[in-house]
Amino acid sequence: MENINRCPNCGGTLTLSKNRRSMICPFCDSEFAINQPAASPEAASNSNRTVLDDRRYNLLWDFDYLSNYNKDVSESLLSFIHCTDELVSSDAIKQYICSRLLNDNEVAGEGVNEDLISELKKRLSPDFLPDEKIIAYGNTAIFSKGKEGMVVTNKRTLFVSKKKYNYLMHTDIHSVKMVISLKLPAYYLNGSLDNYLMTMGSHFKLQGAMLALAFAYAWELDPKRERIDLVS
Questions:
Q1: Residues 24/14, Cβ–Cβ less than 8 Å
Q2: Order of strands across the sheet with 184-189?
Q3: pLDDT for res 175
Q4: What is the predicted pLDDT for the residue at 174?
Q5: Which of 167, 179, 171 is nearest to 216 (CA)?
C-alpha cells in the first residue's frame, strides 16, 4: 500500500494496527493491509471530494488547517465530517454514537448508561417537549459529576450548567462558530457563548458527532431551510 495517512473512503486519519500489518480508520472502520496494492481510482476520488454538501452548508472553515492542527482538533473535526458527509441521517449518526462512542460511564444514550439518562430526565422533565427523547448526553469531564454537559434530543440541543440549562431548537440553528481555545476545539451554535458545544473530557469524536447529529435533525425537521454557516 502507498504510504498515506488519510482513509481513501472517508478522509479520516489512519492509525497503525496493533500487529503493525495494516492501517485502520477509526471513523469508518476501514482496514488496509500495508502490503496491498494502492487504492482504486474510485476510492481515491472519494478522498478528494468536496468536504460536506455546499447546498446545505456555507463552508467558511479552513478544513486543511483545522484537520492538521493537533490530534484533539482533528478527531473532533473528522468525526463531524464523517457523520455529516458519510452517515448523513440522524438515525445513522445516532447508531454510530451509541455503538462506537459511548464507551465509559460519563456519557450516555439509548441503550447505554441509561441510568444517567433517567437522572437527567428527572431534572429536565418539567420542561420537556411532547415526544421529546434524549439521544445522547455527555459530561464536560469526570470531575463534573453530571453537573455540566451537553444533551442532544430529537428536537433541540441543551446546554446544562449545574442547576441551570439553556437550549437551542434544531430548526433555529443558522450557524456554528469553531474556536480553538487552549488548543482544544469548541463550537458555538449561532455564535452564542450560551450555546457552547464543550469538550467532554477526552471525547473529541463524540463532540464532533453530536454537532453533526444536531445538524442532521435541523435538516430533517426543515428540509427547505437556509444553509448553515460554518464560521471561524
A1: yes
A2: 57-59, 228-231, 175-181, 184-189, 196-197
A3: 97
A4: 97
A5: 171
